[in-house]
Design a protein that fits this description.
heterodimer, A: mainly beta, four-stranded antiparallel sheet, 39% strand, B: alpha+beta, Ubiquitin-like (UB roll), five-stranded mixed sheet, 5 strands, globular
Chain lengths: 388, 98
């Protein structure tokens, strides 16, 4: 029987939740990297026991951790004694070195002036679909880096910041590349999203990027609601069978595109609020999507104190609330953008974590939910792996 | 032998218990001690000072012999008591939060 491994990043460490394919009885391991903020933990599709983690601290900065045994043991990549010596006999120790390429440049600052790019942390690590040693890192201040040596060294794909980077501006949560989607049918195509820069696509493996924001409207956030860059995109997602169809949860509005981002249409439909953070697609039904509506940009909690996942089986516009097993009164948690994931078992499993430390799971496509854990630190990210 | 006390999280990262002892050639400056520390424990690179500029991270402090050396230039010689190993050189996570 298959096994499930859920990788949870929290404000105070990482946790690994495991179960068999029934998804009823869960074991919890952790905290790994106790006391550190773990923005993201994600396993390689090519080699599932290869897992990357982004560990950060306001005191000590960025650390990249890697496990090659499914999360039992961890190392900073390149830390074996023979790997640590460079040509001059000096240690490398560069797995946490994220230096912007070339002239650092500037972006828009809160007061409208230009401000130099400054690396703060890695928000998201996206391992290659085919090579366990290759992965992409989305960072704050917004940029994308790539490793081809298992995380020992990282190089910026600097063409992204040439896509009008001087006009990107941080929101209250910072300015980060928080979503990276690899096209499973076209290895040269990558989509990324930035708060608050917008949404971008490369068709040449990361050399050049273009904004893909036509159809996005941000009348309350931008002076020009149809601007090419600057939209606060909270999350994008795709189904691997149809990588030209993307779904987006924007600051306000849920949208879709059917042509790789050339044109977006709003599909918020009957949602009680179209503000939110995560959005995900059912593993087996490319037109079934999930969101978690949040009351507003001023009040980051569910409307009416009811934690409801909304599911559309029609690719948007028509939404149904999923409430069975979720708190329907006095609930004021948030679900952050990287904190929802689906598994590929039948029926599809859906998981999400909250800022209140709960991780909920559904083993039936969202029809009903159970808390896997209730009292973790605030959850920053959730990923899931199906293991043989 | 220079004795260095690391903060909890960096001890975990370097996988050491208690004090670290380092051989540092004279003159024993702030920079020389940090260089030696990073040679011995490369996982600490970037956690105490910036990879490129080698500037101290804002919420890291350097103490020795009841003195705060955080704002001193990297060429600053450490006190004799530290050079002789009588007193440790302390790397501290600054008070932050409330």
């Amino acid at each position: 029987m298959s096994k499930i491994r859920v990788l949870v990043g929290t404000k105070k460490g990482a946790f690994i939740l495991t179960a068999d394919g029934k998804r009823r009885n869960w074991k919890v391991s952790g905290p790994h990297f106790a006391g550190w903020e773990i923005y993201h933990v994600k396993g390689s599709m090519a080699e599932p026991d290869r897992i990357y983690a982004s560990q950060t601290s306001g005191w000590f900065g960025q650390i990249i951790q890697r496990s090659d045994d499914g999360g039992k043991t961890w190392n900073t990549p390149g830390s074996s004694p023979e790997e640590l010596k460079g040509p001059e006999g000096m240690p490398k120790g560069e797995s946490n070195k994220f230096s912007y390429a070339g002239k650092v440049g500037t972006h828009k600052w809160y007061d409208g002036t230009q401000h130099p790019w400054e690396f703060k942390r890695v928000w998201h690590i996206e391992p290659s679909l085919t090579d366990p040693d290759t992965a992409y890192a989305g960072v704050e201040d917004a940029a994308i880096f790539k490793t081809t040596d298992g995380g020992k060294t990282w190089k910026e794909l600097a063409g992204l910041r040439e896509a009008k980077g001087h006009l990107w501006q941080p929101g209250a949560g910072g300015m980060a590349v928080h979503t990276i989607l690899l096209d499973p049918k076209n290895p040269k195509r990558i989509y990324i999203a930035i708060s608050a820069g917008g949404c971008f696509r490369t068709d040449d493996g990361g050399k050049t990027w273009k904004p893909i924001t036509r159809g996005l409207k941000s009348p309350y956030e931008l002076p020009d609601p149809d601007a090419e860059v600057g939209h606060c995109v909270h999350r994008i997602t795709l189904h691997p069978s149809r990588p030209d169809v993307l779904f987006m949860q924007k600051h306000w509005d849920v949208l879709r595109t059917d042509n790789a981002g050339e044109q977006w249409q709003e599909v918020s439909g009957n949602l009680p609020s179209d503000f939110g953070f995560p959005i995900d697609v059912h593993a087996h039904e490319p037109e079934t999507i999930f969101v978690v509506p949040i009351k507003s940009d001023s009040e980051h909690y569910p409307p009416d104190g009811k934690l409801r996942v909304y599911r559309s089986r029609t690719g948007g516009n028509e939404w149904e609330p999923l409430t069975k097993g979720l708190p329907q009164k006095d609930c004021y948690v948030n679900v952050l953008r990287d904190a929802m994931a689906v598994d590929s078992l039948e029926p599809c499993g859906v998981y999400f974590g909250t800022t209140g430390g709960q991780v909920y799971g559904s083993a039936n496509g969202g029809n009903s939910w159970n808390p896997i854990v209730r009292d973790l630190p605030a959850v920053l990210s959730v990923e899931v792996q199906v293991l043989p | 032998m220079i004795r260095v006390v690391l903060p909890y999280h960096l001890r975990n990262l370097a996988r050491v218990d208690g004090e670290v002892q380092l051989e540092v050639e004279s003159p024993v400056t702030l920079r020389a001690v940090l260089d030696a520390l990073e040679v011995r424990y490369p996982a600490l690179r970037g956690t105490i000072r910036d990879h490129d500029t080698l500037k101290r991270r804002p919420f890291v402090r350097f103490f020795a012999c009841k003195e705060d050396l955080s704002l001193e230039p990297p060429e600053t010689n450490l006190p004799d008591a530290v050079v002789k190993g009588e007193e440790p050189f302390l790397i501290v996570g600054a008070m932050a939060g409330g």
